Amino acid sequence: MIQKLALSLLLLANALASSAEELPVEYFFKNYEFSQVSLSPDGKHLAAIAPVGDSRNLVVVDRATMKPLAVTSLTKRDVASYQWASNERLLFSVEEDGNESFALNAVNIDGSKPRVLTKASKGIQLIPRYTRMVDRLKEDDRHVIVTSNDRKAQFPDLYRMDIYTGRKKRLTSNPGNITGWGMDWDHKVRVAMRQVVASDKSDASSELLYRETEDAPWKVLATSHLGQENTEYAGFSADNKTLYISSAVGRDRQAVYTLDPATGKKELVFGHDEVDVGTPSFSPSDHRPLGIGYITDKPHMHYLDTKFGSIQKALDKALPDTLNRLTSLTDDEKTAVVVATSDKTPGTYYLLETEPKLKLTYLAQIADRIKPELMADMKPIRYKARDGLLIHGYLTLPKGAEGKPVPLIIHPHGGPYGIRDNWGWNPEVQFLANRGYAVLQMNYRGSGGYGNKFHVNAWQQWGLQMQDDISDAVKWAIKEGIADPKRVCIYGASYGGYATMAGLTMTPDLYKCGINYVGVVDLDMLEEWDTRHDQEGGITAWFHRAIGDPDNPKDQARMEKTSPINLLTNLDDPLFIIHGRRDPRVEIAQAEHLMSKLNSLGKPYIKLIKKKEGHGFRREANKLELYKMMDKFLKKNL
User: InterPro entries given for it (predicted)?
Assistant: First the structure.
C-alpha cells in the first residue's frame, strides 16, 4: 500500500513537473471563468462577466438561490464592462471590433427589456465616441448621469439619461474647452477642467474651475502648464463645502489635499515620499473618504477610515498570501466583494459581510485552471541606468532557474508616459516563464507613478535615454548572471513595440529576435495621426513638447534619427509583427509601412494582422492564435 502511494505521489510529481515545463497556450489565455464580479446596490444580486459560448456575456446571480442567469447572449462580440444603474437594471458596453468605440446597452437583472442606449461609431478615430455613466441617482431608478463626447470628441457634455429608452437631457453645454466635469454629492455641476492652448500651440495649460452654485460664475483655483507639477480635482467632502484635489505642486509627487475654495487653504491628507498616490475612494452611504491607493514595489492602500482599515487587517490575516481588495460595496456598507490576487493567480472572489460580525464566504475563482504552485515568482528589482538614475522593475525567473543564466525576454511596457508595470498576475509573463524564459519588465524614465521630474525628464527621449534604460536592463541582467547574453529577445506592445524596433535597429548586438505588437516605427507618421484628430490644439501642443515638432529642424532631425523605419538596414534579427487593422491609437499604416520597407530591403519577418482587432487583441480565438505563433517563433529563434 505504501509502495503504491509512493508511486502515485511520484507520478503526480512528474505530472506537475511536466505541466510546469510546458502548459498549453489555452491554460494562460482562454477567457476567464469570472471577471468584474460586483454587488447590486442593495446587495441582493451579484453580477459578473463570464464566457457563454465563444463570447463574454453578462451573468446575474440571485443571492437568495445563488443560481446564475445569463442576461445577454452575444455571439460575435464581448461584454467589455458593466455598471449597476439601479437594483433592477445594468448598463454594459460592447466594443465595435477593436476601434475602442463602445455601444452602451441596458438590461434588467432577469434579462428582460434589453436596449441599445447609444450605438458605437463605425470609424477609426484617435478619441472614439463614448457615453459613460458617471453617477447613479439613488433617488431615481429610471435615470443616471452620463458623460458623452458625441458632439465634440475631446470635450464631453453631461446628460441625464433614461436607462430604459436612451433619451438624454443635456445638463451642461461644453463651450469647447472643458475636458472634464465634477459634481457634488447633490449632483450639481460645480467643478470643471478647462484646457487653454497658447496661440502658437507651444503650451496647453489645464485650469481647475470651481463655482459655489450652478448659477454662480466660474473661478480658477489652479493652473497647470505642460511639464509642470499639476493639480487635479479628486472629489467633494461629504458636506459639499470642501474639495479633494490631487497635486504635485511643491513636492514633485502627486499627493491628496483638501482645498477650501473660499479661502484657498490647502491641507495635506496623504502623500508618499517615493511615489505618486491615487485619489480617494468614498463611502456610498455618507460620502466620507475611505482610503487612497498607491504603488511602491507592490500595491498598497492607505486607509482614512478606521472601520475599513480594521476590515483590511482582518482580511490580510485571513488571506495572508494574497493582495486583498474590496472591489464592490453595497449602499449600506454591510456587504462587499473581495478579490484576492497575487503574482501567481488572477484571483479569487469572496463575499464579505461586515455586520453583525465579519464573515468571509468563497464565491469563485477567476480562472480555476490556474494552479499557483505551477507559476513563477515575480520579484521587484532595481538597477541604475548609465546616468545614475534608479530604475525599478520586475524579474520573473522560470521555475528551477535560480543560479544559472537563462534565455531572457526584455518586456518594456506601452504608454509610454504615465503608464507603469506593476507586481501581480500577468498571463504573458507567466506563459513566457513557463516556456523557460526569464522576463524582465522595467519602469524606464517617463513611466507613471514616480513623480513629475521622472516623467518630464523623458520628454523627447524616444530612442535616446528611454531606450538606454531598456538597454541597461539587458546589461544588468547579464552582469547579474541572470541572462544568457547570446539568448535575449525583446518584446513589447504600443510604445513597447517602438522600443522593440528601436532595440533591434539601434543596438542589434544585444538581441537575438524581436516581437513588435501594435508598435510605432515612424514618429512623423505618429505625429500626423495624432494631430489630425486634434480639435483645439491641445494634442498638438503636448505632442510637440513631449515627442517633437516636425516643423522644428532640431526636433525633425532627432525624430528621423530615432524612427526605426529609417534604421532598418541595421536589422538582422528575426522579427514578428502583430497588428489590428482597426487600431485607433497606432494606425495599421505603421505596420504596413514597416512591412513594405522590409520587403523592399529583402528582410524576412513573420506577421499576424487581424481585420477586426485594434490596439491589442481581445477575441479569444485571435489571442490563442497569437500566442501559439509567438511560442513557435521564440522556440525557433531563442
Answer: 6-blade_b-propeller_TolB-like (IPR011042), AB_hydrolase_fold (IPR029058), Peptidase_S9_cat (IPR001375)
Tell me if the bond preceding 398 is cis, omega within 30° of 0: no
Last residue of a domain, one of 365, 390, 410: 365
Task: Render pLDDT for 63-112 as a digit per residue (tens, 0 to 9).
Answer: 999 999 999 999 989 999 999 999 999 999 998 899 999 999 999 999 99
Same domain, 316 and 398: no
Beta bridge partners, 340, equal 324, 348
Angle at CA of residue 32, ends 27 and 37, nearest 5° = 155
516 and 530 inside one domain: no
Residue 499 and residue 354 share a domain: no
Please give the grid coordinates belonging to residue 489.
529577445
The DSSP string of 416-431 is -TT----SS--HHHHH
Which among 290, 306, 348, 292 is positioned nearest to 324, based on CA atoms? 348
| Same-domain status, 502 and 625 | yes
508, 558: one domain: no
DSSP string, 322-361: SEEEEEEE-TTSSEEEEEEEETTEEEEEEEEE-SSS-EEE
CB of 288 closer than 8 Å to CB of 269: no
Cβ 267 vs Cβ 273: under 8 Å: no
Please, which residues have CB within 8 angstroms of residue 219's CB and are 6 or more apart in sequence?
Answer: 209, 210, 211, 261
CA end-to-end distance (rounded Å), the chain:
46
Same domain for 347 and 390, yes or no, is: no
Which residues are bridge partners to 291 per DSSP? 281, 303
Range of the domain at 486: 376-522+565-637
Q: What is the 3-state secondary structure (H, E, C) of 558-627?
A: HHHHCCHHHCHHHCCCCEEEEEECCCCCCCHHHHHHHHHHHHHHCCCCEEEEECCCECECCCHHHHHHHH
Q: Are residues 359 and 478 in the same domain?
A: no
Whether this model's pTM surpasses 0.85:
yes
- The neighbour count for residue 4, using CB atoms within 10 Å, is 8
User: Position of cell 447590486?
Assistant: 40
Domain count, the chain: 4
Q: In 3D, which of 61, 282, 76 has the Cα closest to residue 185?
A: 282
Q: What angle do CA 99, 103, 108 make, to 5 degrees?
A: 150
How long, in residues, is the chain? 638
For the beta carbon of residue 102, count every other beta carbon within 10 angstroms. 22
Alpha carbon distance 564, 522 (integer Å):
7
pLDDT digits (tens, 9 = 90+) for 326-372: 999 999 999 999 999 999 999 999 999 999 899 999 999 999 999 99
User: Comparing C-alpha atoms, which of 330, 265, 327 is closest to residue 299?
Assistant: 327
| Alpha-carbon dihedral 61, 67, 71, 76, rounded to 10 degrees | 110
Q: Name the nearest CA neighbour of 536 among 192, 197, 227, 193.
A: 197
- Residue 306 corresponds to which cell in the numbers above? 478606521
In a domain, 585, yes or no: yes
In the prediction, which pLDDT does 20 show?
55
Rounded CA separation 325/334 (Å):
16
Domain end position, chosen among 78, 108, 134: 134
Cβ(66)–Cβ(44) under 8 Å? no
Q: Give the pLDDT confidence of 20-67 residue by residue, as tens digits.
A: 589 999 999 999 999 999 999 999 999 999 999 889 999 999 999 999
